Amino acid sequence: AKALRGEIKVTAQLPGWSHVASGKVRELYEPAPGSAWDGEDVLLMVATDRVSAYDHVLSPGIPGKGTILTQLSLWWFEQLAAEGIGNHVVSTDVPQEVAGRGLIVRRLEMVQAEAIVRGYLTGSGLTEYGSTGSVTGIPLPEGLADGSRLPEPIFTPSSKAEYGEHDVNITYAQLEDKIGAGLAERVRCTSMRIYEVAEQKAREAGIVLADTKFEFGLSPEGDLVLADEVLTPDSSRFWPADQWEPGKAQPSFDKQFVRDWLTNESGWNRDSGVTPPPLPDHIVAATRDRYMEAYRKLTGTDLSL
Ligand code: ATP
Ligand code: MG
């Protein structure tokens, strides 16, 4: 069988679009002068197959990942729109070079914070709980373990870092200082509502939505709009519900698998500042399978790549 290759490079030449920025995973383009979208406040957002962990972009990419993330985001955007939650998608009619992994979106003024909601305790939340008994200033009951379900979901914002810097958890008061109390409240309310809807849908599909990160933007009219990607394995922790067992690391359908290989098996030291080693073929394949499984379980359909 022909080896699949992940699409990790910037596609510089897209007809009708000019490249404006590269994130760790996505490429952003604006309408080229004289093109069909020229004069519209839109961006073309393209998900590559790049995978990042611990703020490093790893190599090689995960073949098909960009398409899976984009299609899963689209599915969720539709589910949430049915609940009255608006999003930034304008069109899926993108250049054929990036078909399936590109979206034309409203160009928004991004809220300079990441909106994280946690229903379960793990990751940086667990670490913070271990040393302070709280997460971003929210006190939690004693005796919680890795994977414990929280008494109720909590909103734990973090500050969006510039390229190459770590995001840091902040308290709600710090969020208010950063973006204003009114906007902070709207972001918190909307995030909690989305989590509530998504957690329920995921549960019906046999998946625990342990935690997730949203990004919002403001439209020129001042509306809060759900942007970026949403409820994907990159932005969320998905655990198989039938294997959930607090007190240990949970099996998952997200990139925890890649993180675990990096920190436990690859010999790489997270604090060394050194570039991580290349992912072996079996890790690439297993990661791809996990992303596909998340898509299949959640949407109930297969994605032919
Ligand atoms: P990571 O998600 O690993 O932190 P990143 O934040 O560097 O990576 P990507 O996800 O690779 O970024 O790229 C997407 C970029 O596009 C982000 O900076 C995101 O905030 C921005 N973005 C998403 N939607 C919109 C939008 N509608 N208008 C303007 N910018 C957007
Ligand atoms: Mg991102």
Order of helices and strands: EEEEEHEEEEHEEEEEHHEEEHH
| Gross geometry | globular
Strand content: 15-25%
Radius of gyration: 19 Å
Low-confidence stretches: none
What structural category arises from helix and sheet content? alpha+beta
Query: What is the number of helical segments per DSSP (H or I, 4+ residues)?
Result: 6
Q: What small molecules does the structure contain?
A: adenosine-5'-triphosphate, magnesium ion
Helix content: 25-40%
Main sheet characteristics: 6 strands, antiparallel
Q: Estimate the mean pLDDT confidence.
A: 94
Q: Note the quaternary state here.
A: single chain
Kindly describe this structure.
By secondary structure, the protein is α+β, with helices and mostly antiparallel strands. Helix 1 runs parallel beside helix 6 (281-299). The protein has helices spanning 65-81, 123-132, 172-179, 181-204, 256-265, 281-299; strands at 17-22, 26-31, 42-47, 52-53, 56-57, 89-91, 102-106, 109-110, 115-120, 134-135, 138-139, 149-155, 158-159, 168-169, 207-218, 224-227, 236-240. The model has no long low-confidence stretch (mean pLDDT 94). The two termini are 15 Å apart. The longest helix has 24 residues, at 181-204. It has 6 helices and 17 strands. Strands 8, 9, 12, 15, 16 and 17 form a 6-stranded antiparallel beta sheet that branches. Strands 1-2-3-7-6 form a 5-stranded antiparallel beta sheet. It binds adenosine-5'-triphosphate and magnesium ion.
